[in-house]
Amino acid sequence: MNHVIQLEDIRKTYHTGEVDVHAVRGISLEILPGEFVAIMGASGSGKSTLMNLIGCLDRPTGGHYHLDGMDISTLDRDALADIRNKKIGFVFQGFNLLSRTSALENVEMPMLYSHQHIPADAQRERALHALELVGLAARSDHHPNQLSGGQQQRVAIARALVNQPALLLADEPTGNLDSQTSIEIMGVFQKLNDQGITIIMVTHELDIARYTKRTVVLRDGQIVTDESIRDRLSAEAELRHLQAAQQAIKLTA
Predict the structure, then answer these.
(1) What DSSP element (H or E) covers 179?
(2) CA–CA distance from 168 to each of 33, 160, 185, 244 (Å)?
(3) Which one of 77, 122, 151, 218 is most buried, by most CB atoms within 10 A?
(4) Secondary structure of residue 185 in the 3-state scheme
(5) Among residues 67, 74, 58, which one has the least CA distance to residue 29?
(6) Which residues, given as ranges, of the chain have pLDDT below 70?
(7) Digit-coded pLDDT (tens) for 209-227
(8) Cα-Cα-Cα-Cα dihedral of 67, 70, 71, 74, to 10°?
(9) pTM for this entry
């Protein structure tokens, strides 16, 4: 099976005056189609830089990056912009919706920048389908100020899906939402992932990361843990068993 993401010894160094800042230090990472991965780390861990590299918003200083089988490590700015439009759907903490256009028109927007000519009827059909995927087709004619925060984020997710990308990249997508709405949005991501969509989510919230199937934790620009949900649940079950045994010992002592 071809990897959606294949990073080989990826490095990113920023030159600030006489000081070199090594934001990413030789990261190698493979993500298969259909995975749902959380990238976590404290401030300064390199997770935002790694997200920018994966999202083709920046180029690595060294190493190789293959996205959906294509080596994009050395592509120029215009080529990266084309890759972003074709291969990656972005969901950010801020919804970034156009206030004077309907939900449907907001979702149609990425198709207007596609090199592929898509007839207006086909654009509308694809946008409606994307809204159906996130459960918001009934509000396609509503403007952002007529929608709740959770509904606006659903529109943003639909917009990210409309060009049928190889990868959905979400950066703190629940950061502006309350706890209950965050749970609902994570349910949307889980549903999309169950349909085979590959998702990488950058988050600092452990409760949000628990909805994913794999957690990659960064520290000082390097991966320190890479754990699947199966391993994580097994470790948690073992910890609970140990705690129960310790409690039993205390009760019998």
Answers:
(1) helix 179-194
(2) 11, 7, 14, 40
(3) 218
(4) helix
(5) 67
(6) 1, 230-239, 241, 253
(7) 999 999 999 999 999 999 9
(8) -90
(9) 0.86
Sequence ranges of the domains in the chain? 5-252
Integer CA distances (angstroms), 212 to 10, 56, 143, 173, 216, in order: 24, 23, 31, 13, 11
Collect all residues with Cβ–Cβ distance below 8 Å to 211 and sequence separation of at least 6.
36, 186, 189, 190
Radius of gyration of the chain (CA): 20
Residues in the chain: 253
Furthest C-alpha separation in the chain:
76
Degrees, nearest 5: CA angle 227-29-44: 80
Is-contact 34 196, C-beta < 8 A?
yes
Those residues whose C-beta lies under 8 Å from the C-beta of residue 114, and which sit 6 or more positions away, are: 85, 86, 163
Which pLDDT value is given to residue 235? 59
For residue 252, the model assigns a pLDDT of 72
Please state, in angstroms and rounded to a whole number, the distance separating the CA atoms of residues 175 and 138. 25
Decide: helix, strand or coil at residue 92. Answer: coil
Residue 195 token pair = 């349909």
Sign, CA torsion 90/91/92/95: positive
Task: Give the tokens for residue 161.
Answer: 């899906």
Strand partners, 66: 6, 71
Alpha-carbon distance of 39 to 167, in angstroms, equals 14
| pLDDT score recorded for residue 228 | 87
CATH code for the domain defined by 5-252: 3.40.50.300
